Give the backbone structure.
Amino acid sequence: MGAMRKKVYEALIEGVARCRSDDELYAFVRTRCPETSSRTLVRASLLALTDPDLSDGKALCTIYALALKHRLDGVRSDEIDDVGDDDPLDLTPSICSDP
């Protein structure tokens, strides 16, 4: 694992542990790792999602939502297939509630 990905992963875990989510979590990670890219953020998020020691459902949902949101950064709204969607232009994922 690259040093940057590990640093971003640790910032994600710490941010979630401090009850940050969505934009607050992103700002927290960017404060800790200002030179990170969306790609590194998504890869570090996937690493966190596969961590067997991280078992809090809400934390996993928060990290998943952040990864998905930043994975879609490069997607333009006019490229999205809007068949059956209520609001196809809304790219913000929802954060799931506790199971």
